[in-house]
Batch of 2 targets.
Target 1
Amino acid sequence: MPELPEVETAREVIQRAGLDHVIVDVDDSDTYECRPHKPGEIRAALLGRRLTAVHRRGKSMWCDTSGIGESEPAGPALGIHLGMSGKIVITDRQGNEIEGGDYWERGRDLGDHRYTRFSLTFADGGSLLLIDPRRLGRVRLDPPVDVLGPDALKITPRQFRATFSKGTAPVKARLLDQHAIAGIGNLLADQVMWQAKINPARPVGELTSAEVSRLLKAVKSSVQSAVSGGGVHVLPMVAFRVRGARCPRCGAPMAHGTVGGRTTWWCSREQA
DNA sequence: TATAGTGTTATCGG
DNA sequence: ACCGATAACACTAT
């Protein structure tokens, strides 16, 4: 389920198969997924336009849209957030998946479109679907992207240091704060802190300079490897978030509890 | 049947 | 005003 790497995969799906088709229908009738818009608002704004580019910052995506005719002004951006369970699927005119599919469902639910909460239909008969069982995803026009912190893949050492140099929040809470750094979710956060050997509950203001450096290095390498691998499930720590697990580095028992409001696993020895 | 959950945000208290 | 903790959101899986 979506953290930055999965969202990047979804972005690539749209980039490969969702751009440049004229939009001939929009189903925006799901009032939860399309909040704060009323049914029909997004539809009216997009009919006759094309998606021309797709961007991502952290876990948020947005598509630029074309004018309706030649030399008409561009339309609003279409923002998409996958929430906890969303995925993007592109189908052909027969409704068969040509992009998306099981890219993080690992073989399950392929072709199961029961939970489609938003869709675009293109002039060629194909469609873009947002499938989201839990309905915590969001689709909206001109989403406020500026409130997000720097993308985790692009954050500079200077920006990172500023974010992790002061405050009393647990390191984990700060890693999850999308205003501070965008894209890290619960699993990536645990992986990052395990790799950097830092206790998740440490107040950020108490981190040494060396620890902040290790943290930054761990963020970059974890996020990059998860993006390359196609999702957070390729991260080593994910497999050790189970009762009775032992640290794959030192063999000590993995501890778990709640930090920053989320279930957290850490090595009882190296991250004491 | 009860509970946890890979995300975000409004609200409350210090 | 800032900072951090918590509940709520809607639904599925275990």
Target 2
Amino acid sequence: MKQENSIQNKKILPEARPLTSVDVVIFTVLDDRLNVLLVIRPNTTEEPFAGMQALPGGFVNVESDADLESCALRKLHQKTGVKTPYLEQVGSWGGKARDPRGWSATHVYFSLIPPPDRLGEGAVWLPIGEHGIKTRLAFDHNVLLEAALQRLRSKVEYTSLPAFLLPDEFTLSELQQMYEVILERPLEKSAFRTRVFAADLVKPVNKIRTGNNRPAQLYRLKHPRKAVFFPRTFSPRKSD
Amino acid sequence: MKQENSIQNKKILPEARPLTSVDVVIFTVLDDRLNVLLVIRPNTTEEPFAGMQALPGGFVNVESDADLESCALRKLHQKTGVKTPYLEQVGSWGGKARDPRGWSATHVYFSLIPPPDRLGEGAVWLPIGEHGIKTRLAFDHNVLLEAALQRLRSKVEYTSLPAFLLPDEFTLSELQQMYEVILERPLEKSAFRTRVFAADLVKPVNKIRTGNNRPAQLYRLKHPRKAVFFPRTFSPRKSD
DNA sequence: ATAATAGTGTCTGTAAGACATTATGCC
DNA sequence: GGCATAATGTCTTACAGACACTATTAT
């Protein structure tokens, strides 16, 4: 009991080590809808959840992966070609029961990217509804996705995260649109703009987006890839 | 490359599995000061960081631990005797370099408890200053502690977390004190009380705390062990 | 009465919500 | 001019900050 912290004076048996993986929840907005990237699991009988849809991810490779984050970045780049996404850790899930091959722990990241030109082998976008997704995913990936979604929606209330779903240059209406798609409710334009300017989030570029109507000013982030925090949430949640 | 998600059609070699541990950052308030629980690492030459101070934690035991959270609870109970703490995951840290014994990943939880009657073997409280701690801890535990501290301080701005540092019954002044100790700045009494009542956080009990002055109403949480979110932070942070 | 802490009231400031109004391009 | 969307303005509301004031016990 005193040696609880130690490895009982002998090396921990490798067989007694949990499996270690990284999963990435990659979000983008397509067609006014939040989407998550899924992959099909290999269809061999030796694999658990063969042929099912799953979050992109896999075991940590102790040779090639320096740390968890670079492992997540590698997987994301393989599936989307994106090299500098917004990436944030959601947390980790581990236990006896989540993988039939044995005690396993997975480290979950979520990422926001603009729609990429094309996807890697076997990757598809799945649109997300108000109540998440109905598709049954492999392992406990429905739980992981739900957690990432909850984190995203909660942070969207008071941060600039949705800007990372857009290309470098965008109009304020496009930015507002990203918020509305994720929160699934309309926002007041006036309040939205005041908040964005007060937070010193964007700088105008010398360009205009034209269309069948009044052209809009284009902006870009003042600090690309750094999330900005607003002083309040959009509509203060009732603390029931 | 297509088989990235699989284990390349053979079982992953156990030796290729990272070490998996759980560490717990246990906070309490003693003597108007935030404290963190540390343990001394065993002083054998076979152990890395022998004799140094570290966060309580250790390897996951695939036999006895059902999942990560119960592993964290077990370690917490061993050191403090507390069975129903506030417990929240901070995140996970993993990489080649953080443990000389090999690629390792740790899952970090933080916990808030009232001062326990006594501590387990080799456990001590270390007071935390405005800028964290100066003691050099084992492994990357200074980083983990810093992350937990940042999470705590940030959530204290807009949640009821500090209530979990107190016994079941407490006065509003005592609760405010917990906030002030963690944030290391005074709060307005009037605003504080309004906020607590508006959030419907507490209910009065039919008791009074007496002293050398006007007695104070005792309260208890309406929903023990559930954190409540306030609609705003205490003092809105400047967004830059 | 005095000290000490509990508890309330009033006024101000900040940022969001609601909604109306004006501006500017294309057809 | 008409339409569509961009951009701004005004008024209200919610809640925190500052600070003064009152209340209740022990000594």
